[in-house]
Amino acid sequence: MSKEDNSISFGMGLLAGILGGVVAAILYAPKSGAETREDVKNFVNDFAQKHAPEIKEAKKQALESLDMMKYKLEKQYNKINEHIKAKQMAKAREMEDRSYDFSEN
Question: For residues 22 and 39, is the Cβ–Cβ distance under 8 A?
C-alpha cells in the first residue's frame, strides 16, 4: 500500500471517528434541541478552525486522487473505444473482401 493510500485511509478513519463521536454526543445529550444545535454549531466551528490545514490538505489529496482516477478512466475508455473501432474496421474490411471475391460461387 502506498503512502498516499495510507494518508487517505487515515483521513477517512479520522473523519469517521469524529462523525461517530458527534452523533453519539447528540443522541445522548440531555439538552433541548436549540441548545444541542448551538453546541453542534460551536463544535463544528471550533473543529474547522483548529484543523483547517489538515482539512485543506485532505481536500487537496482527495481532488488529486479524483483527477488521477478521471485520467485513468479516460485513458481506459479511449483504449476500449479504439479497440472497438479497430474490430469494426476489421469486420468492414472482411465484408468488403468477401464482396469482391469472385472466385467463390
Answer: no
Sequence-separated contacts (24+) of 61-65 with Cβ below 8 Å:
61/4, 61/7, 61/8, 61/11, 62/8, 65/4, 65/8
Query: Residue 104: left if φ>0, alpha if ψ -120 to 50, beta else—which one?
Result: beta
Q: Domain ranges in the chain?
A: 1-50, 56-105
Does the pTM exceed 0.70? no
H-type alpha helices, 1-105? 3-28, 33-50, 52-100
Assess contact for 22 and 79: CB atoms under 8 A.
no
The tens digit of pLDDT for each residue in 41-97 reads: 888 888 888 888 888 888 888 889 899 999 999 999 999 999 999 999 999 888 888
How big is the chain by its Cα radius of gyration, in Å?
28
**Cell reading at 89:** 474496421
Q: Under a CB-based contact definition with an 8 Å cutoff, are residues 47 and 18 in contact?
A: yes
